[in-house]
Amino acid sequence: MNLAALSFFGQEALADGRTIGELLPFVTIPGKTTNGSSRWAGKFGTGVDQERDIDVVRTPTGDESGGSVYSIHDVTEHTQISHNREQLLYSVAHELRGSLSVMDNVLGMLFIDYPPLSKEEHLHLMQLAIGTATRLRRLMENLLSAGNIQSGRFQVDPKVTLLPRITDEAIDAVVATFDARNQHILSDGLDREVPVMADRRYIVQVLANLLMNASKYSPEGADVRLGVDRLNDQVRVTVEDAGQGIPVERLSGLFERFYRARPEGEEPGVGLGLAIVKGIVRAHNGTVGVESEVGVGSRFWFTLPLG
Ligand code: ADP
Questions:
Q1: Is the pTM of this model over 0.90?
Q2: What is the Cα–Cα distance from 142 to 295, expressed in whole angstroms?
Q3: From the CA of 133, how far away is ligand 1's center (Å)?
Q4: Distance 271 CA to ligand 1 centre (A)
Q5: Does 115 sit behind a cis peptide bond, omega within 30 degrees of 0 on the bond before it?
Q6: 3-state secondary structure of 127
Q7: Contact, 144 vs 104, CB < 8 A?
Q8: What are the start-end ranges of the H helices in the chain?
Q9: If we measure between CA atoms, which residue out of 258, 262, 280 comes closest to residue 208?
Q10: CA 102, CA 227: separation in Å to the nearest integer?
Q11: pLDDT digits over 199-228, tens only?
Q12: Quick one: which of 36, 49, 160, 281 has the fewest CB in 10 Å?
């Protein structure tokens, strides 16, 4: 056993008389060694965090000893990446299907218009359609940014910007979604003229993601509060909702890609929004955070350097 294998299997692997088949039960030892190579895929270790995906290749030494060399590759990360990719494809397709069927229904009703729609019904249908288009746009922007941020080549170009330019643009981007669910963004009393160092386009995306989440994970008719405060040379922007909240044990991975606090929940989503929030804010030398209580609501915030 080389050192890498020893550290992988641990000391007990050296116990006298143990065979590879005992260490890795899925590896079947042929009765008589053939000249061909064999390959297996399986798991090693127990417990959720300790279980590793491995690939085992057996190559006969080809000499009179009749022995074989087993090379073991730890492919856990690789497996996780392909799993994430599949999951992403599935979630995107799921989102697209949901949005398309809303569009289909709305257009169908507007087209037939029988019995004739009242002004309110008409307005409601238009809000639904625009809200759905907003969701699709967010999804597309998040997918584009995710690749960018992940590549390690992600760069921002922060400039002194007055905060209202960002908050107004983000609110404009999501207002149709809020209207469609009769929700409101409360931003009264904001310190309107704070200058921050921001790459406007990206910080608008950060705030729009947080607002869209606040809408999505809150009931119809709910209020979402936008706050701004200064902390020395930083400005903190807060999005607070009175929605479903997040269980405390699910908070720690929240800003990771593909992480969803309630995977079984009904809300569509791909688990990219908060990872992008973190990636963009970090690139601005800011920090992100969340406080939440189930049934009470959530409070997401990020900081930016004062301009
Ligand atoms: P998505 O919403 O597409 O799943 P995000 O990265 O934006 O992905 O969010 C990750 C997870 O965090 C969500 O699946 C949800 O469980 C939780 N979450 C985010 N924002 C909120 C919120 N305002 N209230 C409750 N849960 C939230």
A1: no
A2: 28
A3: 19
A4: 7
A5: yes
A6: helix
A7: no
A8: 3-9, 20-23, 76-112, 119-150, 163-180, 200-216, 273-283
A9: 280
A10: 32
A11: 999 999 999 999 999 999 999 999 999 999
A12: 49
Where in the chain do CATH 3.30.565.10 domains reside? 159-305
Closest residue by Cα to atom 4, ligand 1, is 271
- Quickly state the pLDDT bin for 289 (edges 50, 70, 90): very high
Q: In the chain, pLDDT over 70 holds for what percent of residues?
A: 96
Closest ligand 1 atom, residue 260 Cα: 14
> Does domain 159-305 match CATH 3.40.50.1980?
no
Q: Distance from the CA of 25 to the center of ligand 1, in angstroms?
A: 40
Measure the CA–CA gap between 215 and 208, rounded to whole angstroms: 10
CB atoms within 10 A of CB 210: 28
For a substitution probing ligand 1, which of 84, 142, 217, 225 has the most ligand atoms within 8 Å of its CB?
217
Q: How is residue 178 written in tokens? A: 């809020």
For ligand 1, residues with CB inside 6 Å are 213-214, 217, 241, 243-246, 254, 259-262, 269-275, 298
Report the CATH fold assignment for 79-151. Helix Hairpins (1.10.287)
Contact assessment for residue 185 and residue 212, using Cβ atoms and an 8 Å cutoff: no
